[in-house]
Amino acid sequence: MYEVIVLRPGYASWTGPATQKAGGTITLLRGRYNVIVDTGNPCDRPILVKALASESLRLRDIHYVVCTHGHSDHVGNNSLFPKATFIVSYDISRGDQYTFHNFQKQGPYRIDDDVEIIYTPGHTKQDISVLVRTRRGIVAVTGDLFESEKDLTDDQLWHQFSEYQEEQQESRRKILDVADYVVPGHGDIFEVAGVSRHDGKTGARKESDLGAFFLRYSAEIARCIERFETFWSAVNESRVLAWLKQFPEREGKAAALKLLSHVEFYGPRMVTELLQKLHMLLPKGYSGLYVVGHGPPAKSGVHLLYEYRLANKLPEAGVVEIANLHAILTDPGLERKAIVFLDDIIGTGSEAARFVHDVNVGAPGAAEALRKCDKYLIALVGTEWGIANVAKQNMFRDVIVARRLLESDKAFSPKGAVFEYEDERLSARRMVEAVGSQLYPRNPKKPDGPGPLGYGDCELLVVFYYNTPNNTLPILWKDGVVDGAPWMPLFPRREG
Q: pTM for this structure?
């Protein structure tokens, strides 16, 4: 572990109109390596040298210099440390040798297990902060992400210098979630005392290990976020941390992160490729194909029709919205054609049975017209048990899916890849069921309906960039109240 020593607290005060006297905080991290975070103004040289001497350190004893951003009151004495490795924004250099680390895309940069540098934009676009594990807890050295402790209650103190206020607000929230102490850019170290760390009745501080958890798993969190960039609702570091914070203790958070890491995310490019694959798998030899959105008009199958037509460069006439299905049933050449029902996922298979039944009884002659032609059900993703359930109904000539999910693809399958150890798997399942039973309780009269492990208890980990199926674990997509507190889903489901 490290010791965090503020060599010189920063300061800032207005001395006249548009005139300020200011100096950046200079911080020393002592542990396996000696690290300086921000080097102050050029005029701070004697202060910095004297402060290091008081710690029995020479200039050549400093291994790393980290600058939270490029303003002159934070980089003014970098030249004092020619032997150090410098991390300044995206640049990592030693002497005249440079490498480039894009924090936004590549995630955190780890000096060792106890010191990590993370992306915290807002004050400038390329701001970074340092997270340090100490015996007192997690310390965040943030530069001007926080001006001083005073700006916790006076937003104007940081708003006036912020280039990107919304991003800075997100970054500040993330730091307050994970840190026990903050070293700000223009003030002394202060203890985090946010609402999330206190009991509203007694004011007693609650222990939180989210900071230590983040320090350990931040690289994995960053990899997850990169995968989910195209989801319709923003999935960023702050939101992932807020979701993880809802789970109990470090073991619960670790289990939730494992589930998140195994989510099958289907972005726009993957969906296009699967739609093309489905079209190639369809049988040839018919005089024509009608492609119809499967399910009610508000469901994803109908919304996919446009993407299907574009992906396969089809004429608009052959791609039919569900509202127009009965119009094609009067086609005199229907017997030589096929109707293809398109959906994004086949979960339990029960929706296919309901849908075709509704079509059959929806208009006079519909059932007879449908019997005259071959019908196919195609989907981006389908479970083997759902496909089997549809096949037993004898409604379709064939059921074709681009990605078939097996029993081993279930989140808590003993044969699955999510959990390595049996006790870990069972513990995680109990936790998810406890939360899911409050978010999406099972209806005893509908055993194949809603359930704490997803619709039909399918235990899926499937998310499309435009929506989340209800067969996926409800902890990922369902909002509600759990143990009296609001539950924030990471991939909220669009209904209707």
A: 0.82
